[in-house]
Amino acid sequence: MEATNLHFLAIFLLLATTMSAITSAAAASSSSSSSSYSNFIKTSCSTTTYPELCNQCLSSYASVVRSNPWKLCNSALSVSLQAVRNASSLVAALSKQRGLTKAEATIVKGCIENLGDTIDELKRSIKAMAQIGGSSSPSTAKNNKMEFQMANVKTWVSAAITDEDTCTDGFAGRKLSAGVKSKIRSSIVNVARITSNALSLINHLKY
Questions:
Q1: What is the pTM of this model?
Q2: What residues contact 200, with CB distance under 8 A and at least 6 apart?
Q3: Span 122-145, average pLDDT
Q4: Roughly how many angstroms between the first and final C-alpha of the chain, as a whole number?
């Protein structure tokens, strides 16, 4: 009986040791993959105009992006779209603020319209990327169609950046309160930089 118990104990210890080793290996592998995905984003962002902001905005998407440059660009566009929506909400709130001068009201209104155009352009870009096969490498797509769609994406994202810049261009020669000018400018500058990074990542795509 004692020998049998010792035999079962030995088997139990062997199984426990094996499971522990498997678990440790899996954890190490997962950690290695996670680190690799984060490094991919950091390396990709190093080619952009604002690398630190790029990595800050996209690092949380590492598990989704993995090492896929198309997914990285899709994520960058989505982040940009959300940033524009946030900026638009902020500017819209300013438009309802009491005490705005006529000049301030005109600029705020124009800025809201520009941001609306930006949102439309980014939406079209995201849709086009999806049609190309942005969730994975579109190697099976026809090259001429792909190049046409990618040209559209680049045009729309470039136009989005122009619309963002136009929003603050309206400040020139206008008398604006420091508070209104500061709030709009800081929000738009951040959005423009995020969108610029997205365009840079798209320009580095190979297809």
A1: 0.78
A2: 47, 48, 49
A3: 72
A4: 70
